[in-house]
Structure formats: structure tokens, C-alpha cells
Amino acid sequence: MGFDLLLLAPVGSILALGFALYLALSILKMDEGTDKMKEIAQAVRVGAQAYLKRQYLGISIFFVVVFFILLAMAMKNYLVIFVPFAFLTGGIFSGLSGFIGMNIATQSSNRTAQAASKSLNSGLRVAFSSGAVMGLTVVGLGLLDLSIWYYFLNWYYSCHAIPLGTDKIAAITSTMLCFGMGASSMALFARVGGGIFTKAADVGADLVGKVEAGIPEDDARNPAVIADNVGDNVGDVAGMGADLYESYVGSIVATSALGVAAGLGVAGVTVPMVMAAVGVIASIIGTFFVKSGEQASQKVLLAALRKGVFTSSLIVAVISYFLVRYSLGVEHLGVYWSVLAGLVAGVLIGLCTEYYTSSGFKPTRSIADASLTGPATVIIGGIAVGMMSTAIPVIIVCVAILISFFASGGAANFNSGLYGIAISAVGMLSTLGITLATDAYGPVADNAGGNAQMANLPPEVRKRTDALDSLGNTTAATGKGFAIGSAALTALALIAAYKDQVMILGKDVNTSMMNPTVLVGLLLGGMLPFLFCSMTMRAVGRAAGKIVVEVRRQFKEIIGIMEGTAKPDYARCVTIATAAAQKEMIAPSLLAIVAPIAVGLLIGIDAVAGLLMGATVTGFVLAVMMANSGGAWDNAKKFVEEGHHGGKGSPAHKATVVGDTVGDPFKDTSGPSLNILIKLMSMVSIVFASFIIKNTLFK
Amino acid sequence: MGFDLLLLAPVGSILALGFALYLALSILKMDEGTDKMKEIAQAVRVGAQAYLKRQYLGISIFFVVVFFILLAMAMKNYLVIFVPFAFLTGGIFSGLSGFIGMNIATQSSNRTAQAASKSLNSGLRVAFSSGAVMGLTVVGLGLLDLSIWYYFLNWYYSCHAIPLGTDKIAAITSTMLCFGMGASSMALFARVGGGIFTKAADVGADLVGKVEAGIPEDDARNPAVIADNVGDNVGDVAGMGADLYESYVGSIVATSALGVAAGLGVAGVTVPMVMAAVGVIASIIGTFFVKSGEQASQKVLLAALRKGVFTSSLIVAVISYFLVRYSLGVEHLGVYWSVLAGLVAGVLIGLCTEYYTSSGFKPTRSIADASLTGPATVIIGGIAVGMMSTAIPVIIVCVAILISFFASGGAANFNSGLYGIAISAVGMLSTLGITLATDAYGPVADNAGGNAQMANLPPEVRKRTDALDSLGNTTAATGKGFAIGSAALTALALIAAYKDQVMILGKDVNTSMMNPTVLVGLLLGGMLPFLFCSMTMRAVGRAAGKIVVEVRRQFKEIIGIMEGTAKPDYARCVTIATAAAQKEMIAPSLLAIVAPIAVGLLIGIDAVAGLLMGATVTGFVLAVMMANSGGAWDNAKKFVEEGHHGGKGSPAHKATVVGDTVGDPFKDTSGPSLNILIKLMSMVSIVFASFIIKNTLFK
Predict the structure, then answer these.
(1) Which residue of A has its CA nearest to B494?
(2) Could you tell me where the DSSP H helices lie in B505-604?
């Protein structure tokens, strides 16, 4: 029974990829606009590709090195021989989805601007389709990778010896679990590198262009303007995609592994994959609901986007019931409530994020009001709002944890409860195909605005792209909340899977907080997100400094830039930002990878459990705070720009610009990178568990 | 053997109080300076007393209410009958030490200014003596309270029935443990209320005086200037004193309680008290080392202060060896290393704090450099420095935990290890008499500067008081690091004591992090410090807003203020700040008290353990970050004011002023209040443990 249904996984994967291809082709058929528009889009595309090329080159060195390390570990029997290869495919598939998503996004910006010449709705449709390509590629490739490995391992262990101490299904899930490390590593580089690139370009462009030279944002005379546009794509499309790709596959493999421990057998292992496949189909259906009349207002468009997401969620909610009922059996029907808890929690966290970061509500308004007493009160207000905004998402996740643990029968069977927590993450992420679409649509709209501005399109077009962009900010906030919430649940599932894997290796993890090594792990783990944020924020500062120097140099040395008679050297800014991002992402990335191994070797496997938990708790809260402070500052600035408190150019506006600049690395670099930090550390711990157990100083 | 030594506790207490009285009397004999100086000091004194009067009135309502709640609980046998009374004495003694410390501090400011007319060293001696009065009063009253209760309970349980399930010594320590809640509650109000008062007055005075009216800091024409000076006393003297009073008695009673569980008998219970008494005597001896030649430089003075602290530490380190050796016996000699680990960790954390916040080192310099690109980069830089600065203190505490656990034999006897961790906190705090003196000296120097400025003393005097103030900033940074580190260790000891108390009540706490209720507790606990900081920061903002309005009103309505012909209404600003602080401290205080009870009733005793641990981990890291960001911003501003990057009035200076203003609530309100939050929540959990166990929904 479970097995027949599992066919849905490759089928869903192929459907997603096929539909993504169909959408991509229909985008490519659309009108590209004027020559000027094409030229600008081309420049962004070339920049983005140059970034990705260099990024993937750097990352491939890392992957080759780690591949051989893992291979050596496999040779010494620390790992199953498939792990190094699974590591590679995880990384390659994640990288591929980033590549596809970014390519289509850079193809869509001028087409969106052109379509917006007709109507708001036409513009939305192009941008949303581009987002849907990204969303469906991520889930499609994720499911494909999972399916290939599952079927392969299932076949392999049917005709070869199963590793000592496990049965077939445990052998399969143990191996697949490790494959998440490839996706995690890729995501880290994409998020950290992309985050540094995008904010270095953004801050650098603003500091010289807007502040010093007094030219508008997205002005073609600014040498860093293309880099800024490239940054939107590498950060918010490729980075976000890789982040959620990782959560997606991570939560599924962790749930599968916990399914074995819970004694749910093959069905327990396959249900998460099947549910993901159901989510893919629901997402595709959902995209058809994102439509409205040609002359729709922004509000109607937002409602249209929401309708798509809610429809998909509803479909998953209904089908999951039957899936759980007939796959796991009526005695495990409680698992359904776990799925539902995750699904609902994801939606609620998104709404909560919107409340705290939208200028339609009190928190962001209070920051705008604080601008009347200067930048210091704007900063204090923004940090206070961000800190305040952590309460509800944490409570939502806590309620989801309790419901999913106990509904899945955790009181009687502890491992069933953990399975419930893990599958709630799968439930939350099941509709990723469409939620990511509404999110990845944002940067396309942003770039379309830049394109329209630089190509001097008529004001009403620019107004429409502004409306699309603003809508994108709302969905981006929702998406960010969703990404953080799902990362937290996935990380918890991975921690449970870590304990489980150590037990398979014949050791037990003492997870009591009173155990001094766990306690020390908790403290170190609680500190790591702060250290990590500090490193990424400084990295942005240094990289932005390089852009500032370059933009100043071009303004000075290239005669005629300001008059529009000479063209700035856009490519150089892209190159500089790329090189800086490459260099700066090394240290924080190493921290994430080395910390759990070092703690394990020095203070033992219990301390690692503490480390992971401490990092997850603090990382989750800090990520919410940073994302929401940043979002609220951004929208407070926009609110003032709309004419409140003196409008553009007033002292209040200048104060909010300070807030926005501080918020940039908060919300687009450091905050989102924390999602990866907490997941990757768990992944590393799982993969290196056997190595640590045998070599730790602290037995 | 242990018992004879215990006499040292009351003896040490009386010595401390006697020496404090001697110092106080010698201060009062000193020259008060000119009439103008007396008048200003009088205004500050009156303001401070008005604040304390109102504050203590408000708090006494709280204490009466809680007293009757505890009494009712005692009637229902949830608590021993002595707890409500112990709660009262804990609060009264803490309040008394705040009262004495603040009174002598406000008597010393003009005398310090007058003495500084002679030489830097004379000024230092007055200010330091004032600090020593505070330090010795805190430890003296703390030890007195402990001694009285110990001797009383020891006598009582010798001739009355011992509560069921415990022996005499356990009955004594259980009751004494609860007495910490009184000290904790008092500390919370002192820190939060004092923190809000001081920063509301400071920010309010600066925003109108410095920024709008363009008059210097501490200018007598500013109506909020007296409130600002009062604030230094209520925040940094009374608040800091209550904070450390709580850590002091909290760590001692927690260690005693854990001594019973560790099976160390009466000696295990009394050793922490005796060690504290040794520390008192060492502190008194240490004060005699704080002296230098009359024409000493600032550097020499700092060395003199350090010499005092190091001498005291050395004395404690030596005598503790013999104390442990002969009191606990040679088989428990390992406990000595625990004490030493705490003592050394305290010193190291202080030095680390200095590195990150002093303009003599790279981190603060980097913030000053960032001022060249405006306020946004100053903010990002300061937050990055604060986040970075969390790493080393956390690692120091972790090393101290591991050493003290294993040195005390935790590997063989788990409870001995916990006793080791707890006694390391006692070791760290043993020299509190003198470390608090170097810290409480700061606000006196600050006020002396204000007095000199307002009384128009010659520039060389003002220069000397500035030097004293700057020295005070260094010692304040060290003191803050010390307060946070000791709070973290104390909180951990209290969490262990909580688990222990629940076991005495016949239940077991499941502290496994994989337990979903513990996990939920951890997440909620990890979030609470953020919520708490958000509340206190907003409170400062609102209170400062009221001061701003009032100062503006006086400038407008009182004709002749600016010309110096009319006197501003200082008292009104004090009244407003007092009322605002009173009102604003209620919500965050309730959060700290209600959270553990609510979590316990809703999700059970295991969740409370998670809550306490989560709050301690995040609270510790966040407190370090906020204190150090704030300190670094402050000193970056001072560094620019010394003439770097354009000096006073330059755009760089304005950018650092923004940083300093943001840092004010960070370092003086929200950050330090976290120390109390984590300790008080543990205290509340211990006192209400029995109530929660019987009434929780989640059994």
C-alpha cells in the first residue's frame, strides 16, 4: 500500500518540473520590451551568471574537498559508502535549482516591466510565473533527488548486505539523512554569499549614489545599480530557494529516519515523501487561483496570491487525512493532527510577520513616529519591535510542537511523538511550491521596477511596478517568517534524528540539561548565532566599503557619468561584490561546519546535542528578531516616503533611512543565514557522529 | 569544626558593617565645598530620596501582597511558615543596603569634587570610600541576614518537629533558599525602575538640552540635569547593589542547598557562608591597598584599584584552600579548584569586557572609524562588536563550569559536581565587597563632575573629575561583566536547586531536552529575554518622552532660564521620572514573576526547568551583548570627542552620539535587568514549586 503511493513522489517531481518548464517557456515567449530594457536586463543577467559561475566554482572546490573527506571516512567505516555521493547530489540538485530559478528571474524582470505597461495584473502574472518556476523547481528537484536515492537504496539493500545492527529500512533512512548535508552546505554558501553580495551592493550603491551624489535609487548613472539588481536575484531568489530546498529535503529525511525509530515501518518512512508529492500537486493547482481582473488594485492582487496559497493548503489538509488514515492506519490517525498543526503554524507565523512589519499596523507605525525624534529613537524602536515580535512566532511553534507530539501518541510512545514533531515540519513545507512562488516573485518585481526606472518608462508604469514591488515586500515578509519557522522545526527534527543516529551507532546521548557537558553545549550553542551574525554583519560592512570606494572612483574618473554622456562600468562593481562575497563567506561558513565537530571532539556527543539545541533556540529567536526589525525599518521608511512626518527629504525621512540601512544586513544577510546555521550544524553532527564517537577526547 | 568556623559569618558581617560605618563617618567629616556645591548636592540628595521613598512605597505594596499570598500558601502547607517572613527580610535588607549606599553616594559627590580641587588622588579616595561603603554594606547585610536565619532555623528545628521527608539541615537550606526571592524581587524593581529612571532622565536631558538647545551636558540651566544626576545614583548605585546583593545571597543559599544533596553534611552547607565571610575580611584588607601618591596619573589610579581587587582575590584564594581542606576534608579538596575557577573566571570576564568596550582597543576603535560613514554604520558596528564580545565570556563560563563540576567529583557523584558549579559562583562573588566598591565609585565620580560643572569650579578641577569619571567607566564595564557572569552562574546553581527542591517534594524533574515540554520551555525561555528587553526599552522611550515634553515646557514658560536669571524647576523632572519609572516597571516585572508560574501551571514542572535554562542561556548572551554594545558606543563617542575623526561637533561626532543614545537603554536598563530576570525566575520557580506540582494542568 505504502509502496504504490510512493510512486507519487517521482510522479509529483516530474509534474512539478514539467509545469515549471511550461511556465518558463511561456515567460520566454513574452515581449522583452524596448532595446534599452533588453540591454539592462542583459546586464543584470550577465552579472548574475558571472556571480553564479564564480560562486559555484568556489563551492565546487569545497564540495570536492569534503567529498574526499567523507570518502576517506567511508573507507574507514565511519560512514556508509553512499554518503559522499549523496552529499554531492544534494549539493548539485540544490545548486541546479538556484541556477534555474535565477536564470528565469533575470529573464522575467524586463518582461514584467513590459507587461506592467499594460496593467498591474499582467505584470503580476509574469512575475508570479517566474516565482512559480523557482518554487516548483525546488520541490521538483528535491523530490527527484529523494526518489532516486530511495529507490536506489531500496534496490541495493535488497540484493546486498545490510550494515551491521540495522534493518533495510533503517539503512536506507540513515544514508538519506546524510544526503541533507550536501543541500545544507550549498544553502549556507548561497545564503551567506548571496546575502553579503546583495547587501554590499545595496548599501554601497545607496551610500554613494543616494546619500553623497543625491541621485535616485535605481538610477542608471550609479555604477553599482546593476550589482544591486543582481544582488536581489542572488540573495532573495537563489539564497531563499537553497534555504527552503534544504528545509524541504531535511524535514522529509529526518521524518523518515524518525519513522523507523517510531516503529511505523515502511509506511512511516514513505508518508513524508508522499505528502510532499501531494503538496506539489496542490501547489500546481493553487497557481491557477492566482488571477484577477486586468484593472485589479493592489489589495485584490494580494488577495489573489493568498487565495492560491490557501487553496493549496486546503487541498493538502484534506488529502493528508486520507493519506494518514489509509497509509499509517487508523490507529495512527493522530499523525494527521501533527501535519495540520505544522500547516496552520506556517500560515500563522506568516501573518504574524506581516503584522509586525507592515506599515498598515501599529508596530511599524511606531517606528515611523519615532523618526520625529531622530535616528537613535528609530533604531531603539526598531530593535524593540523586532524583539517584541519574537513572542508570538515562538508561542505558535511551541503550540505546534505540543500538539504534534501528543497527537501522534508521544505520551505512550516517545518516538512516535518525535515523529509527530518532524512531520509537522513536513506539513508546514508541503505547500512550498506555491509559498516560495509568492516569495521569489518579489525580487522579480523589484528588478522590474529598476528596469522601468533605468529605461525611463512612463511614470504610470513605474507606479505599477512600485505597487508590485510593495506587494512583493509583503509576501517576502511572510516568506521570511515561514522560512524561519520551518527551519526551526526542521532543526528540531534533525536534533532528534541525531540522537537516533547515535543510538544506531550503539551509544546513547544523555540529553539532560543538568549534565554539565550538555549545559556547556547549550551555552556555547546559544552564543554561536550571535557570533555568526557579528561575522556576517562585519562582512557586509567590509564588502560595502569596497563598493563605496569603487563607485566614488568611477564618479571621479569616468568623465560624463553624471551628465549621462558616459556609461559607468557596471561589471566592475559586480566583480568586486562577487569577489568580496566569496572571500567573506568563508569564515562564517567554517564556523558553522567546524563548531559541532570541535565541540564533539573536545566535550563529547552530549555537548553536541546541547550545542544544537542552544543554537536552535537562540538562532530561531534571533532570526525572527532580525528579520522583523529589518522589515519594519524598511516599511517605516517607505511610510515616511509616502508623505508622512514630512515625507521624502525631511529629517524624519533621513532618520528612517538610517534605520533601513541598519536593517539591510539584519533582514537580508545575518537573519536568514541563521536558518541555515541551525540546520547545517545538525546535519554536520549527524554525518560526523560516528567519527566523533570514536575520536572524542571526552568519552 | 564547621560550626566554630561559621561564627565567622556574623563576625564578618559585623566587621563589614562596622568598617562601612567608619568610612561613612569619615566621608561626612570632609569638606563639602562652596555653598553652590552644597546646594546642588542637596538637590540631588533630595531628588534621590524622593525617588527612593516613592519607590519603596510602591514596592512595599507589592511585598505586602506577595507576603500574604505566601502566607496563604504556607497555611495550605505549600510552604514552610518561615518563607513569607524570609521573603520580607530578604527584601528589607536589600532595600536597606540600597538606601544606605545611595545616601552616602549623594553625600560624597560634592565632597569628591571638593577633594579633587586638591588632587586626583584625594578625589579618588573620597569616591572610592563611598563605593566601599556600598560594597561592604551589601555583603555585610547579606551575611547578617543569612546568619540570623541560619542560627534561628538551626535552633528552631533542634527543638521543633522537622517537616516530613527532610532532615534538619535540609529543612534549614530549603527555607533559606526561598528567602532569596525577597532579595530577587527587590533587585528587579531596583534594576528595572532605576534603569528606566536613569535613562529616561539622561536621554530626555540630552535630547532637549544638548541637541535642541545646544547647551553642554550637566549644565545647570537644563531642568532635567538634577534628575540625570539622581538617575546615576538610583541606577548604578542602588540598582547595581541590589543586583549583586541578590547574586551574593542567591549563590550562597543555592550552594548550601546543593551541599545537602551532595551529601556533604553540615560542613557543605556552612562552607559557602564561611567563604563569604573570608571574602569580606579580604575585601576590607584590599581597600587599604587602594592608594597612590597625591599627583598620580589616571593609569596609576587604575592600577591602585586593581591592586585592591587582586589582593583581596589572592587572600581568598589562599584561605579557601585551608577552609576546604579542613572543613570538607582532604577527600573533597577538589572543591577548592571549583572556588578558584569561579574567582579567576570573574576577573577574566571583567578584563574581557574592558577589551571590548575601551577605546584603547580595536573593537571600540572600529566603531569610532565607522562614524566616518554615518550613524547607520556606527549602529551596525556597535551591534557587531557586542555580538562578537559574547564569545569569550561564554567560553570562560563554560570552562569554569566544566572545571568546577569535574574537580568537585561530578563524574563519580553528580550532585557533588553541581555543588562545585554553585560554589564557583560563591568564589566569584566572595570579593564582592571590593569589586562592588570599584564599581559603585563610578556614579559618585560622575556626579562629582556634574557638581563641578554646575558649580563652575575651575577647569582643572573639572578635568580631574573627568579623569575620575573616565576611570569609573572602565571599572563600571568590568563590574558589569562581573555582574552578568555571576548572575549566570548563580542562575545555573538556582536551576539545580530547583530540581533538587522538586525532588524533596517527592517529584522528579525530567530535564531531557528531547522531552517536548522541556523543549517548549527552552524555546519560551529563550524568547523571554527578548520580550523583556523590548518592554524595558520601550519603557525608557516613553518615560524619556515625558521628560522631553517637560524640559521643553520649562524652557518655554520659565522666562530667563537660558540667561541664568531664573532657576528651572528641577524637582518636577525628578517627580516625572519617578512616576514614569514606577509605572513602567510594573509590566516587565510581572512578566518575570508570572511567566514561570504560568508555564508551570499550563505545561508542568519539566517545562519550568526548560524555561529557566532557556532564559539563562539567552539572557546571559543577550546581557553581555547589550552591555558591551552600549559600553563600546559610549567610549567610541568619547574617543571622537577627544578630537579624533573631526572631534566634537563633526558629522562623525553626531554619528557616535546616535550610537551612544541607542546604547543608553542597552547598557543601563535592558541589559542589566536581564541579570535579575534569570535569577528571579528561578527563585519564583523554587518558591512556587509545591503549588505548581499540586495545581498544574499538565501532570
Answers:
(1) A514
(2) 516-557, 570-584, 586-603
d(CA B636, CA B633) in angstroms, rounded, equals: 5
> Does residue A112 have a pLDDT over 60?
yes
Q: Provide DSSP, A240-297.
A: HHHHHHHHHHHHHHHHHHHHHHTT-HHHHHHHHHHHHHHHHHHHHHHHTT----TT--
The pLDDT tens digits of the residues spanning A255-276 come to 998 998 888 888 899 999 999 9
| B317 Cβ contact partners less than 8 Å away, ≥ 6 residues apart | B339, B340, B343
Residues of B (326-385) whose Cβ lies below 8 Å from A? 370, 373-377, 379-381, 383-385
- How far CA B164 is from CA of B149, B502, B574, B688, in Å, comes to 20, 14, 52, 18
A1 Cα to chain B: minimum distance (Å): 32
pLDDT of residue B1: 42
What is the spatial distance between Cα A22 and Cα A27, in angstroms, rounded to a whole number? 9
Q: Which of A375, A421, A530 sits opposite B390 (nearest CB)?
A: A530
Phi, psi of A360 (to 5 degrees): -75, -10
CA distance A680 to A491: 8
Res. A243 pLDDT band, cuts 50 70 90: confident
DSSP codes, A72-134: HHHHTTSS-THHHHHHHHHHHHHHHHHHHHHHHHHHHHHHHHHHHHH-HHHHHHHHHHHHHHH
CA A66 centroid distance within chain:
23
CB B382 within 8 A of CB B662: yes
The closest of B688, B543, B522 to B616, measured between CA atoms, is B522
Cα separation, B685 vs A110, whole angstroms: 61
Which is more confident, B391 or A293? B391
**How far B49 CA lies from chain A's nearest CA (Å)?**
30
Which residues of chain B register pLDDT less than 50? 1-3
CA A302, A307, A312, A315: dihedral to nearest 10 degrees? 160
**Which alpha helices (DSSP H) does B119-264 contain, by range?**
120-159, 168-205, 225-232, 240-261
Q: What pLDDT score does A1 carry? A: 42
**Residue (of B258, B262, B205, B249) closest to B230 by Cα position:** B205
Q: Residue A343's pLDDT is what?
A: 92
φ, ψ for residue A512 (rounded to 5)?
-70, 130
Residue matched to cell numbers 533556540: A617
Would you state the pLDDT for residue A631? 92
CA dihedral sign, ordered A660, A664, A666, A667: positive
With a pLDDT cut of 70, the percent of chain A lying above it is 99
ipTM: 0.94
pLDDT for A2 equals 41
The residue with greater pLDDT, A138 or A164, is A138
pLDDT at A152 over 90: yes
> How confident is the model over A224-235, as a mean pLDDT?
87
How many Å apart are CA A499 and CA A337, to the nearest integer?
25
The CA distance from A66 to A49, in Å, is 25
- Inter-residue contact B558 to B568 (CB < 8 Å): yes
Dihedral sign computed on CA atoms, order B552, B557, B560, B561: negative
Cβ atoms within 10 Å, residue A96:
16
pLDDT at B164: 64
Cell numbers found for residue A180:
541533507
Task: Tell me whether residues A387 and B530 touch, CB distance under 8 A.
Answer: yes
pTM of the predicted model, to two decimals? 0.94
Nearest to B359 by CA among B634, B629, B636, B628: B636
Higher pLDDT, B429 or A216: B429
Q: Is B111 on the interface with A (CB under 8 A)?
A: no
| CB within 8 Å of chain A, chain B residues 509-568 | 511-514, 516-520, 522-527, 530-531, 533-535, 537-538, 540-541, 545, 548
